[in-house]
Amino acid sequence: MSLAAIDRTTSNTAGNSGGDWPPSWQSAPHGIRVGRYIDPAFAKLEFEKMWTRVWQVAARLDEIPEAGDYTVYNIGDQSVMLVRVDADTVKAYHNFCPHRGTALAQGCGNFEKKRIVCPFHGWRWNLAGQNQLVLEREEFRGGELRDSDVALRELKSAVFAGFVFINLDSKCGSFDDYIAPVRHWIEDLAIGDMHHYWWKSLSVPANWKVAQEAFFEAYHVSATHPQLEKVGRDIVYGDRVGGDLAYRNVQYESLPLGHARFYGGNKTPMAGHLQEPTGDPLEEMAERLSLIADGMDAMVLKEDVEVLRSLRGRPIPEGSNLGAEYVRALYATAAEQQRPMPKLEPETLGMWGGEIFLFPNFLILPQAGNTEMYRSRPDGDDPNRCIFEIYSAKTYPAAVRPPRATVEHVTDFDDPEQLLLIPRQDLSNIPRIQQGLRSRGMRQTWLAANQEQIILNMHRELDRHLQA
Ligand code: FES
Ligand SMILES: [Fe+2]
User: Fold this and answer.
1) For residue 234, is pLDDT > 80?
2) CB 3.0-4.6 Å disulfide test: which of 47, 125, 197, 298 passes with 372?
3) Domain spanning 182-466: which CATH class is it, in words?
């Protein structure tokens, strides 16, 4: 047996402390062992010790805007039903009927007459989870069936910034403690004022961590999205040997509890920085932003590029620059439309084009009143598959009623009708990463100390859960 094969051997140590773990489950500062991405026993441990005990995003409020609306969130073999009780109240219930187990809800919809009715024998509850009907009740428990026997089982939930978070562990820590390290950025960026624009779900042949780690750094931009990084493209695909890589300016920050963020620093188009400009700065910046608007339809939208183009021919005031004038114009347009915008201060503006990561699996990529978001989670108990979702959200003018969030299922990652260029480029790599990680020649990944630090930070927090 080769050394690699020995290292990759798994044992039935699930539940033991990390010291007893097989080598293939270790994470070290320089890299992550492959067992963490491919071993069914590791995936089982993640489910028992992490997924069933952590706060996680179960839904956006846009999925359940009206009283009686429901949506279902599945994680592993667990199913949770989220119900809008009234304008101010959302409840999360374990999705089962106390009679014989039938899942009470599937997908999303509205409980007619605000009554939750089991389709099997018709037991019924109100939206607050109290039983209203047990047909032939006297037949059960000698006629002594108590209300508590048949109430819906609620689980812990919290509404924050337009998200519904849940925790399957009744003894979990507080949501406030969990969200504290990232709370102020999410609030200042107006994520809670943003509503559904589009939402796609993909069944991806890759571990849930592989899929999300593909969005944890800008290091991949030169090779994966060469249209966004001219200098990097020429180094990777041409014969150029060096230059001012735009993505080298990204700042990474590992935060407590596995959360993290990265941000653009000073050299972003928004701050007026253009990579090796050759022509008219405004036209080059508009072209650069159009690559995002056309390639993602998120973060930068076509209407934002139009705002920039409306500045054509206008002189830039003394002491200002193109980026600052663009920001000023965006806020003026938003004010006219009575559209909420992020807080206008340097730290918040610095997050535009950056990313906030909420452990264990949610990414927010904020911009000027728009955001793209990603959620990655295991698909059942298969370590080689995940459900990966992409959300685009934005603030709407006061006069416009935001649409209800509905999901589209992407069936072909190569189809430009279903996925735009930038996610298509990312998704073209993700299944290939999983394929490579399963190779018997592959033992561990190598991590860049700065640019890939968020990956290590996430694995460390994962270990903290798994070894608890
Ligand atoms: S299983 Fe639900 S009413 Fe019988
Ligand atoms: Fe990417």
Assistant:
1) yes
2) 298
3) alpha beta
Closest CA to 305 of 324, 280, 321, 329: 329
> Which of 94, 123, 132 is the best mutation target for the ligand 1 pocket, counting ligand atoms within 8 Å of the beta carbon and taking the most?
123
- What phi-psi label fits residue 233: left (phi over 0), alpha (psi between -120 and 50 degrees) or beta? alpha
Task: Write the residue with the smallest CA distance to atom 4 of ligand 1.
Answer: 121
- By CB atoms closer than 10 A (0-12, 13-18, 19+), residue 7 is middle
Ligand nearest to the CA of 221: 2
Give the residue-averaged pLDDT of 152-156: 98
Structure-token pair, residue 374: 């990603």
Query: Would you say 342 and 190 are in contact if contact means Cβ atoms under 8 Å apart?
Result: yes
Q: Tell which atom from ligand 1 comes closest to the C-alpha of 98.
A: 2
Instruction: Kindly state if the Cβ of 118 falls inside 6 Å of ligand 1.
Output: yes
Tell me the domain boundaries of the chain: 56-171, 182-466
User: Any idea what the Cα angle at residue 337 is, between residues 334 and 342, rounded to 5°?
Assistant: 30
Q: Is the pLDDT of residue 128 over 80?
A: yes
Reply yes or no on whether the pLDDT at 5 is more than 60: no
Distance, in Å, from the CA atom of 347 to the CA atom of 382, rounded to the nearest integer, reads 40
- Ligand 1, closest atom to CA 122? 3
* Least confident span in 2-11, 45-54, 310-319, 452-461: 2-11
Please say whether the beta carbons of 224 and 426 come within 8 A: yes
Beta bridge partners of 391: 199, 373
> What CATH number labels 56-171?
2.102.10.10
**What pLDDT, in 10s, does the model give residues 451-468?**
999 999 999 999 999 999
Domains 56-171 and 182-466 share a fold: no
pLDDT at site 271: 67
CA of 96 relative to ligand 1 center, distance in Å: 9
Query: How far apart are the C-alpha atoms of 81 and 76, rounded to whole Å?
Result: 14
